[in-house]
Each structure stands twice: as structure tokens, then as C-alpha cells.
Design a protein that fits this description.
about 140 residues
Length: about 140
């Protein structure tokens, strides 16, 4: 979902370690996380703050607990297919807001294909295929 002309690097902390040099390389660090990943999120935020690198975060953890992360510069809540383009527009115009949210639901048929070129595929024995999205009983804790 990032512009094609941006230089990108993916660090999947499930299969590799985040290095200080990875953060120093970046103008912005994008984080997506679930609740079970709180400890690594705390580490990433601390390292970004130390290095003075801005943070953009999305995913279930930040949608549910956005108030617990005041160090994050921009929060992309709920459905990124809907909220992230709004952020990018404002970002490109020089006035991004802190929180982007929606009450709409994304259509899985319009979910963009990940940029698999960013993966070091030797680190994976298998890959999942997403065939559905979210919960049948959506939880929306971010007030609109």
C-alpha cells in the first residue's frame, strides 16, 4: 500500500531481529501488531524514540489501544484499505493527522497483494493464504 517510489525494508520480527541500523536507515517506521506482540512493540517504540524516527502504526493492537501509545506519531486504525489512503493523501500534502479511523469494512476482494519482494523467503518454510477477513462479530473499540 506504500507508494512504489518509496524505499522500503521489511523486518519481520517473527523470523529475524530488528537492528538499530534498520531504524537509523528509516525516515519512518511502520508497525503493525496484535495484542500478543505488545512486548516487541514496546521495544520498537523505545528504539525509534531513541533514534528520533517517527512511527506510523496500525493493526488490531493500535486500533484497540491507541490511547496507550502516545509516542506514536500517526495511527492508522480499523481498515487500512480505507484509512491508509487518507493518511497518505494528507501526508503528501504536508498535514497528516494523528489518528485515521473508519466505521466502514474493507472488501477482501480489493485488499492489495503484499509486496513479497520485501520478504527474505529463505526465512519461511510456508506461507498462509488469507481467504477471509476479521471476525464475524467485529469489535470496534475506537470511538468514531
Amino acid at each position: 500500500m506504500l507508494p512504489s517510489d518509496w524505499q522500503k525494508k521489511l523486518v519481520d520480527m517473527n523470523v529475524t531481529q530488528l537492528k538499530t541500523s534498520d531504524i537509523q536507515w528509516a525516515d519512518y517506521v511502520f508497525i503493525s501488531a496484535m495484542n500478543i506482540q505488545k512486548e516487541s512493540v514496546k521495544f520498537i517504540i523505545g528504539e525509534c524514540v531513541k533514534q528520533g524516527v517517527k512511527i506510523i502504526a496500525g493493526g488490531p493492537l493500535f486500533t484497540e489501544e491507541y490511547n496507550n501509545y502516545p509516542q506514536i506519531d500517526h495511527l492508522i486504525a480499523n481498515e487500512a484499505e480505507i484509512t491508509f489512503p487518507l493518511f497518505l493523501k494528507d501526508f503528501n500534502e504536508g498535514h497528516p493527522e494523528r489518528i485515521y479511523k473508519t466505521s466502514e469494512f474493507a472488501n477482501i476482494t480489493s485488499t492489495p497483494v503484499p509486496d513479497f519482494q520485501l520478504l527474505s523467503q529463505k526465512n519461511y518454510a510456508s506461507m498462509n493464504i488469507q481467504v477471509t477477513r476479521g471476525c464475524f462479530f467485529p469489535f470496534r473499540s475506537l470511538p468514531l
